[in-house]
């Protein structure tokens, strides 16, 4: 599975939303499902799926789907342009 | 009670941490034994078949992260964390340097905070886990000549209660034990009259043993404590009464 799809699935599963809702501009706290608890679940899921351990600063900064891709790229996770 | 559980214990090279590692192993857990004294940890490792040594300084942020990466790679999960490592300063309020206070806070509170933060990320995946912090009767009651230590341990109590509320929905329980006077290297400087005075103030009239605290920690780690969270359990022979 491509990393883009893994990312979408991770967001969808963690936040309990339809995959179609996982757009680049989906942002933390703009939908009720993406609250601080769901953010912790999301981080755990991303770390599990991509086998990385994120820095706390990156967890704080991960405020959107687009930002998540940008941060994961720092951990050598590649996404199609 | 702890069959097949994966448990990380900091400060495992001596005292309550050491006793807890042995007790967890006895109850069937695989234990990651962490501390700075790699020689003592290796000796403990020889006694516990299902164990792995993690030798690092708990106040070294990068080293802590590396330790958790190792746990993630080797075990893929973590069921329990025991924040046992600690230091105790005996110094009058006026004689306590701010750097001493900082050292107490870094070791007793900040390191425990970071360990809990990283443990939570592993526990969140399975929606289950137990964190046990080592608070102290001193942090709960206060003590003359131990203001820095008391500050750091009282902060740990606050962390315990707050985390229990914040992590409860993820299935993670957070508790603490608050030992009284326990016979360990940390309390060995108390001899003669000063020791006798503390001991006689407890209802049981004696010092506790590390293993007696370890039993309570293992209970809190286990499923037998499945409905207990946010508690600071005094293990002090009635000292705090």
TrEMBL record, chain A:
Gene3D superfamilies: ACP-like. InterPro entries: ACP-like_sf (IPR036736). This is Acyl carrier protein. It comes from Aliiglaciecola litoralis.
Automatic annotation (TrEMBL), chain B:
It comes from the Bacteria. Pfam families: adh_short_C2. PROSITE patterns: ADH_SHORT. Residues 5-185 form the Ketoreductase domain. InterPro entries: KR_dom, NAD(P)-bd_dom_sf, Sc_DH/Rdtase_CS, SDR_fam. Belongs to the short-chain dehydrogenases/reductases (SDR) family. This is Glucose 1-dehydrogenase.
